[in-house]
Amino acid sequence: MSAPASANASSPVTYDVAERIATITVARPEKLNALDGATITALGDAIDRARASAEVGGIILTGAGRAFVAGADISQFPTLGEEGARALAHQGQTVFRRFETSPKPVVAAVNGFALGGGCELAMACHIRIAADVAKFGQPELKLGLIPGYGGTQRLPRLVGKGRALQLILTGETIDAQEALRIGLVNAVVPGAELIATARKWLGQMLANGPIALALAIETIDRGLDMPLEAAIALEADNFGRCAGTEDMREGARAFLARRAPNFTGR
Ligand code: COA
Fold it and tell me: At residue 83, does pLDDT exceed 50?
């Protein structure tokens, strides 16, 4: 069933759940899904709803029409001012971080333009699958700005400093194959297969237990920003937490009995 992500019936974000997967769709196609304040707020409501819902195990984020998200809504820029721009960056960064820290895996199904804030939103997801027609870029410098929704930090972490500097300083747009080549996306598929592919990958993940999924996401997310010694200590700690779960015992029993495990999240 399709429903607005918030109580507002004209929400620019829709939210559907089927077979344990919530699909969050940015639905402002007449503006190529550009992120205005209402859209950012609705995205925050949608990811919080998916995170809190017991019937949801994983999340797909996509866009309606020919764009994933064509960036922050440029029409708000001329009147922003310094303080307004800082607040806007903080608001978007906070919402994007809710996607990145979701204990349930989030797959960006990038159906078209992922520019500026759209590329940054995709990078805040755990996995990116691109339609062959998708386009990526950080064109902010062409507008006299720098990326403000995490792009200066997540892009170099994903593709390396040199390539990130190239993309951000030139503002160039790259196609899906180039995004795959540099490691910005995990896979490129025909547009007609995009959502099915995202569902298939999430299905593989959801066959694993929710506690191990959440702890793997947390260990990678937090560990990457720690010195190696601290990061591997975090890994050992979370490895121990897994070993305290019924799911770990079930996984081992199922392997030894040559049957599929039945994880319950305990
Ligand atoms: N903010 C606000 N409106 C946007 C937008 C954005 N980031 N991106 C697209 N739109 C709007 C256009 O203004 C247009 O609205 P209109 O029909 O009311 O005039 C509509 O979406 C369609 O876009 P249009 O530019 O006509 O489509 P196109 O196919 O010619 O070009 C793009 C597509 C993506 C190349 C082009 O829209 C673009 O460059 N967008 C801005 C990308 C960007 O710089 N993002 C980073 C912002 S920090």
Answer: yes
Mean pLDDT score, 127-135: 98
Q: Which atom of ligand 1 is nearest to the CA of 115?
A: 45
Say what angle helices 161-170 and 151-159 make with each other, to 10 degrees.
130
Task: Identify the pLDDT of residue 153.
Answer: 98
Say what the pLDDT of residue 40 is: 98
Q: List the domain range (segments joined by +) for residue 81.
A: 13-206
Confidence at residue 3, expressed as pLDDT on a 0 to 100 scale: 54
| Atom number, ligand 1, closest to the C-alpha of residue 145 | 48
Pair (147, 234) in one structural domain: no
Burial of 54 (0-12, 13-18, 19+ CB in 10 A): exposed
Q: Which of 164, 185, 206 is the endpoint of a domain?
A: 206
Write out the catalytic residue numbers: 120, 140
Residue located nearest, by CA, to atom 40 of ligand 1 = 70
Average pLDDT over residues 72-91: 96
Torsion of CA 224, 49, 122, 74, to 10 degrees: -120
Q: How far apart are CA 253 and CA 224, in angstroms?
A: 32
Q: How confident is the model at residue 10 (pLDDT cuts 50, 70, 90)?
A: confident
Cα 41 to middle of ligand 1, angstroms: 20
* Judgement on whether residues 91 and 39 belong to the same structural domain of the protein: yes
Do 238 and 193 share a structural domain?
no
Asked if the structure places residue 262 within a domain, the reply is: no
